[in-house]
Protein: IMP cyclohydrolase
Amino acid sequence: MEEEREPVLLVSGKLMETCKAENAWQGPAAVYTTPGKDPLALSSFSRVEGSKLSHNNRRDMQGALQTMTHIAAGFQKNFGTVPYIAVGVKHSSPCSAGVSEVSSLDAIRKMIECRPETIFGGTVLTNFKIDGEDAIELAHHKYGDKRRVLDVIAGSEVTPCARKTLSRAKGRCRILVNKDVDGAGAARLDTAPLFKYARGEIQVQSNYTFVFDRKQSYVRCYGEFDLPAWKDLVLAWALGSTSPSNTITLVRDGMVIANAVAQHDRRIAAKLALLIAEDVGHSVDGVVAYSDSFFPVEDAPKVLIDAGVKTIFTMTGSIRDTEVISYMVNRGVRLVTMPEVFGRGFYGS
Structure:
């Protein structure tokens, strides 16, 4: 017998009409608030510069918030602190991220250096105040005399000097602020139910609230891991598990090297991640690789290992787990595994 659920109120009241729908011919698009008070809800951000958020801007902010909160929650759970975090998003998926225990500038530089061209026209979310120096880095780091343009920039605060640097003609750069995203405040996961439309029905499921914990008994380690390696593994997990599957994520020294998302084949995702890294000029020496589900066969690990990847974090759950794990360990890989029933990272399907 199917479980009966109480009716759920989907919306409370009409908030606004966005200036643009996903595609112009679909407009105008409407936005409705949901019940309850969430300090990190999009409606809790104040727009201090630029035009109204479009449908695409909102989807990018949603993706950025999911990634940001998972990074913060992962670091808080595993290391007791939340670093400076900068996340870059395009087409609802994180394309870059940087974390730093040193400074906001360091986090911004890492986020940009992942893929300096890709973030152009995208969304950037930070868990810190963006000041004039930060704004200069966002606009010019790895971009020479040219000025990088961004569609949305959000942080706990954006100073007037920074706004002047980042603003665009006709309000094309939307600048948002929310004091509750500052520091450890960014670790607030979204716990509201998720609603997705499928033709003729509404599907409901729990939100993405799993947080990886390296101390759990179901986490298996093959090899020795120092603290910097664990921090890279947590960053890779947070980014990869908030990206459309199949995903392979590469991280080194608090910087995402590549995030290959939404591939139908895990071997191709591995190849794409390496291609992205190579295209930007990143070496894979010292990177950690995260896979959001298990490797059913040895082909994807072989691609990564042949390229020089020596640390992999993956799920278990395949009937060939024993053979695939043995293959990776025999190739000299440091390996972390977790049963997919606890932590599979499928997202957005």
